[in-house]
Amino acid sequence: MEKIYNESDIRHDYRKLTKLLIERGMTITTMESATSGQIASLITDTEGSSAVLKGAFVTYCNEAKIMQGVPVEILEKYTVYSKETAEAMAKACVKTYEANIGIGVTGTMGNIDPVNPEASVPGQVYFAIVLNGKVQSYYVELVPQPTRLAYKLAVAKEVYDALMERM
């Protein structure tokens, strides 16, 4: 069954998440590639979010991922589009910001990546969540979305659902 991603519902979900993190005194960080900071942005749309979002990285190119702690060997062995890369991203941002939760997101949105054409398949997204030191990775295949924002919001919803299951 095709999933429908509704922007206002997703924004409401992230308000709930941010309030829950504030309530529990937990911190969160992200290293985002495909979503380009959308998840961090959704978290900060709620007042008081400065208590929970310690910082975030937008690592759109491989060099940026490496600069922020993703081992070059992971990228070379598994490609940028892999669960291993998503896990390395999540671990790296948690380590940098010493947060309770770290989210790493990589994948291909609407078109093939000209820099990594052999590894990119539109709609394939990998993400990982580190929660209190334990990492879990996920893979989703998104149906074509009408806009780049719609892709980002769809991934944000998948991340939200996975995180809430673990909390």
Computed Rg: 15 Å
Structural class: alpha/beta
| First-residue to last-residue Cα separation | 26 Å
Q: Helical residue percent?
A: 40-55%
How are the strands of the biggest sheet laid out side by side? 2-1-3-4-5
Mean pLDDT: 94
DSSP E strands, number: 5
- Runs in which pLDDT lies below 50 for 5 or more consecutive residues are none
Order of helices and strands: HEHEHHHEEEH
Shape: globular
Give me the number of helical elements.
Answer: 6
Strand content: 15-25%
| Sheet with the most strands, sense and barrel status | 5 strands, mixed
Give a written overview of the molecule:
With 167 residues, this protein is of the alpha/beta class. 43% of the residues lie in helices and 20% in strands. The protein is built from 6 helices and 5 strands; from the N terminus they run αβαβαααβββα. The protein has helices at residues 7-24, 38-44, 62-67, 72-78, 83-97, 148-166, and strands at 28-32, 53-58, 101-107, 124-131, 134-141. A 5-stranded mixed sheet has the order 2-1-3-4-5. Strand 1, helix 2 and strand 2 form a beta-alpha-beta unit. The mean pLDDT is 94.
Give me the secondary-structure topology:
Blueprint: H1 7-24, E1 28-32, H2 38-44, E2 53-58, H3 62-67, H4 72-78, H5 83-97, E3 101-107, E4 124-131, E5 134-141, H6 148-166
Parallel strand pairs: 1-2, 1-3
Antiparallel strand pairs: 3-4, 4-5
Helix pairs in contact: 1-6
